[in-house]
Specification:
Elements lengths: L14 E4 L11 E4 L4 H5 L8 H4 L5 H4 L1 E4 L3 E5 L9 E5 L11 H22 L3 E5 L16 E6 L7 H5 L8 H11 L5
């Protein structure tokens, strides 16, 4: 039973549900069910194999790859902070920035610049958070494989939802975001 203003179909497998039909005392909160997050929760965010080594062997659509370069590639973050949250990764399994080759660093920088241009063109981005967390203690989710975050930001993207409900509302499906960014990506040098 739901008295939410949206149908479950609008959330592609997720649903919003009122507490009115729950056992116990109902409250005023709606619940946003996100069962796809169980993979992240059950693994502690740590996949068995390196996802950044595995991704290039899959199709772009399966791996959410937006663009491929010679030494590095760009893909969508599977657990994004915002729609269009991209990761720029070297193909080589290397954990730290100072262990990357000059060619990898140069291409990561060029792909990051292109990512910014494409996100401004496709999504009207107002700003960016760009950075690398080096090592687990510094917050790297996948510490064993270097990756740079390119997080698009908009003047209107911050609200109470992440602070109060620890939930991030993402208005676009990952596959749709990947398709639009990949279509706008200029030819790889």
């Amino acid at each position: 039973m739901t008295d939410a203003p949206y149908s479950p179909e609008e959330f592609s497998g997720e649903s919003v549900e009122s507490s009115a039909g729950f056992a116990g005392v109902p409250d005023a909160f709606q619940r946003l069910w996100t069962p796809h997050r169980m993979v992240y929760i059950e693994t502690g965010g740590q996949p068995e194999d390196c996802p950044f080594c595995d991704a290039p062997s899959r199709t772009d659509e399966e791996a959410l790859i937006v663009a491929r370069g010679r030494t590095a590639y760009v893909l969508l973050n599977l657990f994004p902070y915002n729609s269009g949250h991209l990761l720029v990764c070297p193909y080589r399994h290397v954990p730290l920035y100072d262990e990357a080759t000059e060619e990898e660093i140069d291409e990561i920088a060029r792909l990051t610049q292109t990512a910014m241009r494409v996100l401004r063109q496709v999504a009207g981005t107002d700003g960016f958070n760009i950075g690398m967390n080096q090592g687990r203690i510094a917050g790297a989710g996948i510490a064993a494989h270097l990756h740079q975050h390119v997080v698009p930001r908009w003047a209107t993207d911050a609200n109470f939802f992440p602070i109060i409900a620890r939930t991030k509302a993402l208005p676009q499906l990952l596959g749709d975001v990947r398709a639009s960014l990949a279509a706008a990506w200029p030819g790889v040098e």
